[in-house]
Amino acid sequence: MLTIGELASYAGVTVRAVRHYHAKGLLPEPERDHSGYRRYGADAVVELIRIRTLAEAGVPLARVRELLRAGEEEFAAAVAEIDQRLRAEIRERQRHRARIARLAAGDSLALPPEVVEFLDRLRALGVDERIVQVERDGWIPLAAHAPERVPEWMARKREQIADPRFIGFYRTLGQALDRADDDPRLAGLAGLADELAAYLTGMAEERGEDYIDDAEIEPPLVRVMDTLAFDTMPSARRLIELLRQRGWTGWTKVGRVDRGAAGTRGVRQAGPNG
Description:
There is one protein chain. By secondary structure, the chain is mainly α. It has 13 helices and two strands. It has a two-stranded antiparallel sheet with strand order 1-2. It is rod-shaped and about 105 Å long.
């Protein structure tokens, strides 16, 4: 025979929990013996372990009371139902764990692996981090909008950054980021605009204008991506103004200037490229 403390110890609960289960009518409370103690038998240990196990599984105490009084078939069905619920909770917790782990993963939280790899490559090539962040911020809505086209766009990007001229465009723009509007060194942007215009013209002649005009990004998304770029890099807005004077225009949506209309045509992913 066991004292209440011994019973609690065997079942892995506290004495307070045993008394709580007595109060809730889950565990019968024995009469006191001649010494004034309540003594518990082995059956009480088994019953208390069943109560504790069900309660720890999240079963409300009112339902625990019903299950303790149920027949074997009903009890087995209830246990199977509880097990199914716990399996679902475990899967959900595993998903939460995966999401939590991704919080430490930086860009990969919101971007496909190939985009993350591209951003890391830009950093390795010495591109200014602010330009990398503009690329990153542009790719987030773009990847969310058309994830199925990311591999295609990334293939183009990999081609571009393999060209030293393209990386030179990025570096020249990066040098302009910390200069005031009246800084004479900003004249370098005019040279960059010359080089970009020649680059775009050569690409259009070599591969056709459809090569430049093929990303099919919707106008509202173009405006979002342009705003992200220009707010972060005001010099990028000036570069596009200079580029327009040379027959090309656009940051996210790059194309030839239509001399007969206010709009432009052509598209490209965010960046000083075609």
